[in-house]
Structures are given as C-alpha cells and as structure tokens.
Amino acid sequence: MGEINWKDKCWMVVIYLVREDGKVLLHWNKNMDTWIPIGGHIEPGETPMRAARREVQEETGFEFDFLEEPKIQGNSEIIPFFRFQIDKVPHHNYHMTFVFIGKCKKYFEKKGTDKNEKLKWFSESEILNIKEQMIESVWKAAIESINKVKKSQI
Question: What are phi and psi of 26, to 5 degrees?
C-alpha cells in the first residue's frame, strides 16, 4: 500500500460569509496582496466545521449558520462543504482546503480582522468591477456563494 506524504500539506478551511442583503465578506491579505475569504489552518483535533467557526470568531466575532448543516447517518456525520480545493502555495507547499458558505446572522461594523487586515462586504457588482485584481477562484466562489444564499432564502 502506498503512503501519503503529509509533510508538504497544510489543512485549511475558508468560509464565504454572506449577509441577508447579498453581500459577501472578504478580507485583505497583505501577503497575497488581494481579497480572500475568512479562514485559516485546521488545528490538531479539530473538524473542518469547528475550525471554520473558530476562524470566524477569532477574525470577526460574527455569528453565522452554515448554508448546510451536517447530517447524521448512523455512525457517520456527513459534512456538506461547498468544495474541496487544493492550492499550490509557495511558502506552504499545498493547501488542502475545505470551503464552506455561511449565512451571517449577527454582525456589526468592523474594519479589520484580529490581525488588522481590512474587512469589506462586497456586492456581486463590486466583485465583478475588481475581479482582475482578485484570484479567479475567489471571485467566482464569492459570487457563487452570494447566489446560493439568495436561492436558499426563496
């Protein structure tokens, strides 16, 4: 049986938080010089959903519901993430990322994360106006997240 090389992998979560008015929250990552969703590393012993909740709490203090909650089937918990993404990152080798969508239910005016990175709520049109300055997978997922939350409210 082959072995998986875990040494060059970082396990991550990101979450696209969407407000009831259809705006999605992104933060300015100074290392990448672009807007990205809230997220970070999964800590030892954490599930991806737990890590997403912790990252949102640490970085914003906002309350949210996952667009889809886990389902229990017998002894299994089925985690309904939006997508699983593998990114080649120069300083971390590979990011193995669980991507979630959340419906922000309690938020307040906040200009930055816990690391003093800018926070901004974007409408779909605002994202489309600056998409050339963003990572393609981010702006596409942000718009898709907005539309999925809108659809869930119908």
Answer: -130, 160
Taking the C-alpha atoms of residue 93 and residue 82, their distance in angstroms, rounded to an integer, is 23
Which residues, in sequence order, are CB contacts of 70 under 8 Å at separation 6+? 49, 77, 78, 79, 80
Instruction: Give the residue among 149, 5, 137, 34 at the shortest CA–CA distance from 83.
Output: 137
- Classify domain 9-152 by CATH architecture: Alpha-Beta Complex (3.90)
From residue 40, how far is each of 53, 55, 75, 128 by CA, in Å?
A: 11, 6, 28, 25
Contact (Cβ atoms closer than 8 angstroms) between residue 74 and residue 29: no
pTM of the predicted model as reported, rounded to 2 decimal places? 0.89
CB 38 within 8 A of CB 59: yes
Amino acid at the residue 28: W
Quick one: which H or E segment has residue 55?
helix 48-59
What is the per-residue pLDDT across 46-88, written as a single tens digit (0 to 9) for each?
Answer: 999 999 999 999 999 999 999 998 899 999 989 889 999 999 8
**How is the chain split into domains, by residue range?**
9-152
For residue 82, the number of C-alpha atoms closer than 13 Å in the C-beta half-sphere is 27
